[in-house]
Amino acid sequence: MKTRTRRHAAPGPEDGPPPVDETAAPDGFVEVVGRFAGEGLLIQGWTTGAIAGATEVVAETRVRCRHAAVLATFPRDDLKPGAGGVLAILPEADIDPAAIRRCHLKVGAAWRRLDLFGQRTLLPDGDAEGHLRHMLAKLEATDADRRTLRRLAAPRYAGHDTVSGSALPVRAAIDLAVRVPGAGVWLSGWPLDPTRRVEAATLNAGRWSVRADGEWMRAVRRDVTEGFAQNPRFAPLLAGADDRHGFAGFVPVPDDVAADAAFHLELAVGEDAFLFLPVSPVPPNGEFVRRILCAVDPDDPAADALIARHVVPPVRAAERPVPGPATVHDLGPARPDPRLSVVIPVVDGREDVDLSLARLAVDPDLAQGEVLVVAGAASNARLPRAVRAAAGFYRLTVRLVLAPRARDAIEAIAAAVPHVRAARVLLLSTAVVPPGGGWLGDLERAAMRPGRPAMASPTILYEDHSVRFAGIVLDDAALPVAQYAGYPADWIRDAEPRPVAGASLDCAMLPRAWLETAVRAGGEGFVGPERKALDLSLRIAAAGGPCLWIPAVRVVAVDEAPRAGDEPWRRAAAVVDRLAFAATWPRVANATVGAAP
Amino acid sequence: MTAPRVLTIAHNHPDLHPGGAEILARDLADALRGAGSPSLFLACVNRAHREPRPGTAFQALGPSPDEMLLWAGRFDLFHQSQLDLDGLVPDLAELMTGFAPDVVHVHHTLLLGAEMLFLVRRTLPRARIVFTLHDYLPICPNDGQMVTTAGALCEAARPDACAACLKDRTAEEVVRRERHLKTLLGLVDVFVAPSRFLRDRFVAWGLPADRIVVIPNARPAADPAPHRPAAADGRRNAFAFFGNLTPYKGADVLLDAAARLAADGHDFTLEVHGGAAFQDPALADALAAKAAATGGRATLHGAYRTDAHPALVARADWVVVPSVWWENAPLVIQEAFRHRRPVICSGIGGMAEAVRDGVDGLHARPGDAADLARVLRRAMETPGLWDRLAAAVPTVPDMADAVAAHRAVYRMDAPARSLAG
Questions:
Q1: Whole-number average pLDDT of chain A
Q2: Which 530-569 residues of chain A touch chain B by CB within 8 A?
Q3: Which of A108, A489, B40, B312 has a 20 to 30 A CA-CA distance from A346?
Q4: How many domains does chain B have?
Q5: What does pLDDT average to over chain B?
Q6: Quick check: B96 contacting A, CB < 8 Å?
Q7: CA B168 – CA B175 distance, rounded (Å)
Q8: Do B56 and A464 touch (CB under 8 A)?
Q9: Which residues of B touch A488 (CB under 8 A)?
Q10: How confident is the model over B68-118, as pLDDT tens digits?
Q11: Chain B residues with beta carbon closer than 8 angstroms to that of A562
Q12: Are the beta carbons of A247 and A213 closer than 8 angstroms?
């Protein structure tokens, strides 16, 4: 997909032909001048020795600007021998025709001076296309130039849909158009083109345009076929045709296309006909990512390539974690200078966070500490009351951080970071059920060795005694894998603490400064929380914080939320995250390993 | 290879689904371990028992380091085909590489998928692949029972007949399925058949006879449950049924036979032990109605724990196995023999092979309640019959026998079969 941004020739005032002898006779005359809708200039007249093809023209106003031009010739029987009609198109010129004083036409290495004919015709704006169409039949030009001329002679986009009323057997509609800030436009819809007339689809915004249909994803749209099955015009054409009318795809848009730019889709139908469809992108909403994932067939043999091209870029941009606003309520005993801050993100509807608070309250290793309970977007409205009651009952210093825009644990942690007061932080999921006392101190001692701090995670087990987390390591392809995941815990019974590529944000101890740095640097967008968490962990490691796995410290994590199903869009999401991760961390090995414990 | 490393793969875990094949597979894995073989038992599960977990196909069932679960919930039953190769293959290959077994002993293609035999061969080219045939599923797409959907016993699989039986499959699909399974089963070095009957069925289907070894199922050694005292008149009139209540087990036929005996005024008891998990609720309702028709002589006790079996069988004189399919080598028969109970069974297939009519048990026509009632009446009323049959009950191989027999199979000289053929 080649992006093309039309740019004006912007020559300086002196960027024209050599000085001319004003007293000498001109080489011809300009008889017709007109401006195309949007941009482009038409100049028609006569001269001698002109050769059809690409050339240059200086349209002289109060300055002399040199422009690329396409020149066509045509015979004139009213001129002296050797002279002939010329019609030049300056596609990128943006000049008021009335301001033109004369023109200079480059023929070979020489310049021809064409003065203005006294009875010249100044075409009204928008009439240049019609005039060019009228002249096309008699013009002599190369095939390529003739195509250019046809294109210029075709109707321009006038801000409205010309597909629906077209006499051609082509119809189209846009179902979803989303402008992802900083990335591009997602388009999905359908063109109905049973006679294969559409040769190209181009997305335009002002002077920017890009071919949009090169590799877009196709989809079966039986509903479109059925919708036209009773249409006497289309029904005979649809007999035997397949239903793959749907399309979907992502079109990168450069940042210099204004955020509020008006887009339209241009369908090239044959050589010189164009149909237009307005496109009105909206900003991404909460359903956007799921909708585009539904457009992907994860079983398509080309799924990886299509997802990498069309889905990964908008997801990475749209799902990028953004720390939202947060309000803080201090509950329980005041403790302005806590020794340790425990951050508990709550991003589901649970009310039983008091169980986590009770376990922390009776743990002597949390003495002089504080707990930050971060209530995310999906948290229960009754959560604050439960936290307040628990803080009072257990005499626990709690900061309730209300982060209504935090969609997941990572965003909740990011929202909490500015409100963490201790230099040491424990990230703790509500799913984690620690054993009896001592584990917190063991983990803290492992993480905060003098002069060698680390981001340390314990072994996390499922309730069935299989391993949920025992460190993220890199495989032969430098991709991160969760080592021992699913294996019986007994398999790692004698393991020693060891550096790993990533820790678990479900339970990790680390210096606050590292967390602040990583959060401030931002993260990448992923669909699933697992990759997002891994991304943050790797960012911390990449910023210089080594990760440690502490096997001897064991906690159990109890997942209470039902697991996601295996619907196609979820499988597509897994592919998106895999590809997005590979794109984000192409050299994860270099970035994370080698840090000594 | 004195103590080979053995990876055992079963289609479920007996603690989750106590089917006969699952119990036998785990018992053998345990016995091998007890005999000095490093032995890992890997049991497949699906959503019936576990939800998948992110990032791994493995789970556990408890603290044991020797047992693991493999979540394999995306499975094509007809083709016995694993649909989630992307999810399973990396984890399974890594496990096999890490455990490095000398033998991979597969007990079923259910959930696992026949393709995993290819993965085993590719990952462990020097390992011996042993496959125990517990039922007829490779031959018969109708639940592997070799019983038609209309309920008739089937002698052999034929594409046209199978398509007519299944109704939603064409003969071409049946042929493709057969070729697919035979291709992948061709990677197996040695098949184990627990009965000659089953072996002959697979030989007739096309597996090479010289690669199928018959090893009778074994049970852990245990003291037999004591015989209950005979009634004052010497009658032996306590019957028991053990097993999952599926339509193929014939519990309905047995209850109908009991109803006939009750209607004729016979004095007897029938205790039915077994659950109807994952069955149509209508089946349980129908069985309850049939039990009610026996006038209180038959009792449905529901599912039972394996360790409760001795106490339950102690209350019975006879164990009845009225299956309406061929069976293979029913565990319930061996459990009965282990406790010195003669068996009344359908006189077909693996049952007829395991129970000698008039020697250590009695045969009845499968699916024929009237004939079964006749045999039950004979069992109760023939003086001395029970004592004679009980005395002739054969010894059941124990796990030491099973380990010795399987180690012989693991050592068999046949070269490991390569992917090329």
A1: 86
A2: 530, 559, 562-563, 566
A3: A489
A4: 2
A5: 93
A6: no
A7: 14
A8: no
A9: 60, 63-68
A10: 999 999 999 999 999 888 889 999 999 999 999 999 999 999 999 999 999
A11: 51
A12: yes
Residue B230 lies in a domain: no
Residue B387 inside a domain? The answer is yes
Half-sphere exposure of A526 (CA within 13 A, CB side): 27
Assigned CATH topology for domain A327-558: Spore Coat Polysaccharide Biosynthesis Protein SpsA; Chain A (3.90.550)
Residue A6: band (very low, low, confident or very high) from pLDDT cuts 50, 70, 90: very low
For helices B171-185 and B159-166, the axis angle rounded to 10 degrees is 110
| Residues 474 through 493 of chain A touching chain B, CB cutoff 8 Å | 482, 485-491, 493
Q: Which residues of B touch A486 (CB under 8 A)?
A: 53, 56-60, 68, 91
CB–CB contact A562 B58 (8 Å): no
Is 2.60.40 the CATH classification of the domain at A171-318? Answer: yes
Determine the distance in angstroms separating the CA of B78 from the nearest CA of chain A, rounded to an integer. 20
Q: What is the mean pLDDT of residues A254-279?
A: 89
Q: Which two tokens stand for residue B323?
A: 């299956």
Same domain, B335 and B208: no
DSSP element (H, E) containing A537 = helix A529-542
Claim to verify: residue B26 and residue B122 sit in the same structural domain: yes
State which of A451-455, A589-593, B342-346 shows the largest mean pLDDT. Answer: B342-346
Q: Are residues B199 and B268 in the same domain?
A: no
Q: Is the per-residue pLDDT at B363 higher than 80?
A: yes
Do A462 and B67 make contact, defined as CB atoms within 8 angstroms?
Answer: no
Q: What is the ipTM of this complex?
A: 0.74
- Find the domain containing B140 and state its range: 6-218+399-411
Sort out which chain B residues have CB atoms less than 8 A from A563's CB and list them. 51-54
Question: Looking at residue A593, what is its pLDDT?
Answer: 36
Q: What is the residue-wise DSSP string for B307-354?
A: GGHHHHHTT-SEEEE--SS--SS-HHHHHHHHTT--EEEESSHHHHHH
Integer Cα distance of A456 and A439 in angstroms: 12
pLDDT above 90 for B278: no
Site from B44, B56, B83, B91 to mutate, A interface, most A CB atoms within 10 angstroms: B56
Q: What tokens does B14 get? A: 């007996």
In a domain, B227, yes or no: no
Distance CA A13, CA A476 (A): 62
Within 8 A of B51 by CB-CB distance, chain A residues are 562-563
- Asked if B63 and A489 come within 8 Å (Cβ–Cβ), the reply is yes
Same domain flag for B162 and B32 = yes
Residue of A nearest to B74 (CA): A566
Residue type, A46: W
- The answer as to whether B151 is a domain residue is yes
Write the residue in A468, A490, A563 that is nearest to B52 by C-beta: A563
Q: Tell me if B296 sits within 8 A of B223, measured CB to CB.
A: no
Domain shared by B302 and B374, yes or no: yes
Q: Is A261 exposed, middle or buried (0-12, 13-18, 19+ CB in 10 A)?
A: middle
Residues B60 and B132 in one domain: yes
Q: Are B63 and A490 in contact (CB < 8 Å)?
A: yes
Q: Output the pTM of the full model.
A: 0.74
- The Cα A88–Cα A75 span in angstroms is 14
Determine the residue among A483, A566, A567, A581 to mutate to test chain B binding: the one whose Cβ has the most chain B Cβ atoms within 10 Å: A566
Q: Looking at the structure, tell me whether residues B386 and B403 fall in a common domain.
A: no
3-class state of residue B266 by DSSP: coil
Residue B281 sits at the chain A interface (C-beta within 8 Å)? no
- In chain B, positions 29-58, which contact chain A (CB-CB < 8 Å)? 51-58
Which residues of B are less than 8 Å from A529 in CB distance?
A: none
Q: What is the token pair recorded at A533?
A: 């968490």
Task: Give the residue-averaged pLDDT of B27-47.
Answer: 96
Q: Which amino acid, A470?
A: A
Q: Specify whether B107 is located in the same domain as B251.
A: no
Q: What is the CATH number of the domain that holds B270?
A: 3.40.50.2000
